[in-house]
Specification:
Blueprint lengths: L1 E5 L2 E3 L5 E8 L7 E7 L6 E6 L6 E2 L7 E6 L4 E6 L8 E9 L2 E4 L3 E5 L2
Parallel strand pairs: 2-11
Antiparallel strand pairs: 1-3, 3-8, 4-5, 4-9, 5-6, 7-8, 9-10, 9-11
């Protein structure tokens, strides 16, 4: 069972990135999926949450710029990040949760800098 993240990197303000998180060993479609981030010296924060039966949640600072989605056929979740800002710089983590099952990606660096 694992989640493997990809797609991070160094971009300029205003650019876009798409993070991917591929699941193996379980069926992602049954799980609540979350994206967290942790900036240097700060606590890990929830960026987006997508559950099967409720509207997707976005933290205020990313609403309208980030989109959380999943492709059940590929067993993969995504975080599309547009209009990136320097304050979006952080390590991003994907998470899938169902009851006591709680799986995390390895974390991937996103740096927004001119």
């Amino acid at each position: 069972v694992q989640l493997v993240e990809s797609g991070g990197g160094l971009v300029q303000p205003g650019d876009s990135l798409r993070l991917s998180c591929a699941a193996s060993g379980f069926t992602l479609g049954y799980y609540t999926i979350n994206w967290f981030r942790q900036a240097p010296g700060k606590q890990r924060e929830l960026v987006a949450r997508s559950s099967i039966s409720v509207s997707t949640f976005y933290t205020d600072s990313v609403r309208g710029r980030f989109t959380c989605s999943r492709d059940n056929a590929k067993n993969t979740m995504y975080l599309q990040m547009n209009s990136l800002k320097p304050e979006d710089t952080a390590v991003y983590y994907c998470n899938a949760k169902l009851g006591i099952r709680d799986y995390w990606g390895q974390g991937i660096q996103v740096t927004v800098s001119s």
